[in-house]
Automatic annotation (TrEMBL):
ABC transporter domain residues: 17-248
Name of the protein in question: Amino acid/amide ABC transporter ATP-binding protein 1, HAAT family
Source lineage: Bacteria, Pseudomonadati, Pseudomonadota, Alphaproteobacteria, Rhodobacterales
GO cellular component: plasma membrane
rRNA processing as UniProt keyword: no
Keywords attached to this entry: ATP-binding, Nucleotide-binding, Transport
Length: 248
């Protein structure tokens, strides 16, 4: 029997996250229109689209910050459509949003400590976990500095550290590179590749260089609906995407 080779691990049949017909109206405006979306575990997925395409609303629906008018959201095999954001976080979703959610008057350490406390296991040291999360984004030399003193770009990195501190299964990043310098963007790419070794990443991003170099696959939203989905090369070559988004 020793000569038998182990069967290759079967790809997990169930996606980490999916939506079915998810829809959100704001008054007379349909911001997200019957979107079917599937995100397999382990992928880096970028979500792109023109301004007003519905990206932030869609991510709000995934995270539980916005409830759908109709449709279903499934996370890790569970229907989470009606679960509030904190319950989805407890199940392993973490996210950063365009509107920064840090506490400006608190030190970096305390901001991240708030996130770590959600999942600290017995025997784990709060300080060690906080410092490790800040080290991943390169901010561990400023533990005692008030978060409000950071540049906008560094505040975005702090938010990512707060997301990572939760050891998420899914990390959702809404325009994470906005306000970062070119050098910081390179560091961010390295960080996301590192994070993706043990988490799934969904990235809303306008910087096409970041999208093309990081994403395994790209989903393009336009007017609340999925216009296209594919590898960076496929999306780059798609005439409908070029017309709607890339200005081609
Ligand atoms: N709370 C709200 N009330 C009313 N309309 C809204 C609300 N939130 C979003 N919208 C509208 O829904 C549409 C989609 O907006 P959304 O912010 O999701 O798009 P987006 O793709 O994230 O845009 P951007 O790239 O500019 O951030 C827009 O027309 C927007 O004005």
């Amino acid at each position: 029997m020793a000569a038998m080779t182990a069967p290759a691990a079967a790809p997990s049949a169930e996606p980490l996250l999916s939506t079915k017909g998810v829809t959100r109206w704001f008054g007379g405006l349909c911001a997200v229109d019957h979107v079917d979306f599937t995100l397999p575990a382990g992928e880096i997925r970028a979500l792109i689209g023109p301004n007003g395409a519905g990206k932030s609303t869609f991510v709000g629906l995934l995270a539980g910050r916005i409830l759908p008018t109709e449709g279903r959201v499934t996370f890790a095999g569970e229907d989470v459509t009606r679960l509030p954001a904190h319950a989805r976080m407890a199940r392993g979703m973490a996210y950063t949003f365009q509107i920064t959610s840090i506490f400006a008057n608190l030190a970096l350490f305390d901001n991240v400590a708030l996130a770590v406390q959600r999942r600290l296991a017995p025997g784990q040291s709060l300080a060690t976990e906080v410092e490790a999360a800040l080290a991943r984004v390169g901010l561990d030399d400023r533990l005692d500095q008030p978060a409000g003193d950071l540049s906008y770009g560094h505040q975005r990195l702090l938010e990512i550290a707060m997301g990572l501190a939760q050891n998420p299964r899914l990390l959702i990043l809404d325009e994470p590179t906005q306000g970062l310098s070119d050098g910081e963007i390179e560091g961010f790419k390295v960080l996301v590749r590192e994070v993706a070794k043990d988490a799934t990443v969904l990235l809303i991003e306008h910087n096409m260089d970041v999208v093309m170099s990081l994403a395994d696959r790209i989903t393009v939203l336009d007017m609340g609906a999925v216009l296209a989905e594919g590898t960076p090369a496929e999306i780059h070559a798609d005439p409908a995407v070029q017309r709607a988004y890339l200005g081609g």
